[in-house]
Design goal:
Pfam families: Rogdi_lz (PF10259). The protein is of the alpha+beta class and 249 residues long. It has helices at 2-7, 73-90, 101-123, 130-134, 214-245, and strands spanning 20-25, 33-40, 43-52, 59-64, 70-71, 142-143, 150-157, 160-171, 193-196, 199-212. The chain has one domain. It starts with a helix and ends with a helix.
Length: 249
Amino acid sequence: QEASHRFALPTSGSGGVFKQENFVLSTSSTDQVKGVMTLQGDALCQADVNLKMPRNNQLLHFAFREDKQWKLQQIQDARNHVNQAIYLLMNRDVNYQFKTGLEVLKLMDAVMLQLSRARNRLTTPATLTLPEIASSGLTKMFTPVLPPDILVNFYINVNKLCLTVYQLHVLQPSTTKNFKPAGGSVLHNAGATFEFGSQRYEVSHVHKVECVVPWLNDALVFFTVSLQLCQQLKDKISVFSSYWNYRPY
């Protein structure tokens, strides 16, 4: 229940409308990228990003269009899994009596599966290829329009909201460089190459900025505690079952 409450953050008297939270994404090692993100439940409803181009120190600024917001599927999925775990526990009559220990063990296994899936959605970001990032709807979210040599990606990694900015340069058709498209990854490194449309690109610079989302941290703690409680109940039932099955000679 506590974990599920962290995914629903209504403001008082708002009838369940998610409150907006602002997060500053930056890194202490460089000021190449800075971003201010507004998170509302499982959606990024505002994003302002400043990017300093290393070649000429030109400062680029781009932000979400007012009519756009970006759903963070990881948060949405984690919330759905924890709600399913609660449903498994609550969808019985209040006077229901469990008949056997095995019945409880099966229920705990089902609940633990949903809790593990909820945790894994936050701790295991999706691996994407660079063409998948380039063709993502996220690229159409910004005003002014992102230049063709910039890619961006947002994702959750454990308890952090992460923004990755890739700067690209075009590979000329006459280049003698061995071209090997990069596969899927959470974070691509400089030097990765890919083909998009009819053009080949190489990643020249990678900038990753992040910040901790406190309520995601809370939820992960509650997932761990919940899984431990489920396992403790399973262990107790197993011990009692071994006594029950014991037949002295």
